[in-house]
UniProtKB/TrEMBL annotation, chain A:
InterPro entries: Glutathione-S-Trfase_C-like (IPR010987), Glutathione-S-Trfase_C_sf (IPR036282), Glutathione_S-Trfase (IPR040079), Glutathione_S-Trfase_N (IPR004045), GST_alpha (IPR003080), GST_C (IPR004046), GST_superfamily (IPR050213), Thioredoxin-like_sf (IPR036249). It is an enzyme of class 2 (transferase). The gene is Gsta2. Coiled coil: none annotated. This is Glutathione S-transferase. GO terms for molecular function: glutathione transferase activity.
Automatic annotation (TrEMBL), chain B:
The keyword Transferase applies. Its EC number is 2.5.1.18. The gene is Gsta4. The keyword Signal does not apply. This is glutathione transferase.
Amino acid sequence: MAGKPKLHYTKGRGKMESIRWLLAAAGVEFEEEFIETKEDLEKLRSDGVLLFQQVPMVEIDGMRMVQTRAILSYIAAKYNLYGKDLKERAWIDMYVEGTTDLMGMIMYLPFQPADVKEKNLALITERATTRYFPVYEKALKDHGQDYLVGNKLSWADVHLLEAILMAEECKPDVLSAFPVLQAFKGRISNIPTIKKFLQPGSQRKPPTDEKFVAVVRKIFNI
Amino acid sequence: MSGKPRLTYLNGRGRMEPIRWLLAAAGVEFEEVYLETKEQYDKLIKDGFLLFEQVPLVEIDGMKMVQTRAILSYIAGKYNLYGKDLKERALIDMYVEGIADLMQMILMFPFSPPDAKEKNLDSIKERATNRYFPVFEKVLKQHGQDFLVGNKFSWADVQLMEAILAVEEKIPAVLSGFPKLQVFKTKMSNMPTIKKFLQPGSPRKPPPDAHYVETVLKVFKK
């Protein structure tokens, strides 16, 4: 019954991208089935395979998992990227919720009208540099270890790298005041599974452009 | 060093209420500190208590935990309300995330502009009766057990109970098409720790009113 996990989503980043990152970092090969039209989404719904009528949906270990966080938690635990005990898990969860909040802001940017977009871009930069990045910079500096939690690669590290790269796409010099994060970025990017994911031809999706926004709007009627 | 968990939030439901529910359901006594002014909140930030400058904050087992989901997961894990294995945890996570989406609509409702209130109320009703409640009705019907996952009381049951009562406050007849959920609600209400939480004088907070909205806007003003 165990085959490769199968991801159901549009052919873009959205809420599925963090899942692609985590599977890739864990060295897990996966398949993707892309929703290209409204009819594709309707079919998934009418087939009864989406618990709350929503995607992401990941077929994994005999389950049809939905809800991004649930899926990520399952993958993290299964592939030993969730710390060694309840307290390490608590720290990983806290860190991941922070990067989720930051990436959430960035995710919606392409869908906003031009005037709101500019204001939110400034807000993203402000939040990244005053609320989020200082926390991770300090955490790494304080313990001097290579990874955020328990001196071992975890979901929190993968998620932070993803957030850093997304923030840099918004503002290339966003890490200028964070030397420890710059070193972290270099280090984590060189982990073989992650290095592979960052290369052209991987399943990593490009930033969302205007054309893709139009596709998404049509599929989800938004 | 470990005493009762201490919760810091406003004197109202907001994002802290699911945490109060879960601790209460687990039979854990806790203390509360209420934010009433912007100055109190600013001081918490200045004193470095809030990892991402936000509440909820729960001081528990030597940690200053933030991020609602991280806190809830920790409590569920600690008090055996998180299933017996990874797959049960996955189900609990999926259910809890779905319910959280519904609760988010209720959370934001008091802050909607007056002309949007009716539309938002209709959305809550539609989502509850067409997307969320049918899922849990079906789950309970299919396995015929008292609890959502693994024939054992879990975080998912507490979360569903909270959501049912919250929606009923706005739409009293909302459970009319869901006989299993009606039975579930009664069973949950009679569990000793929950029964106690539902009695006057418990830490349960009342529905948000105009004063609560005013306090939120005042405390979190930029």
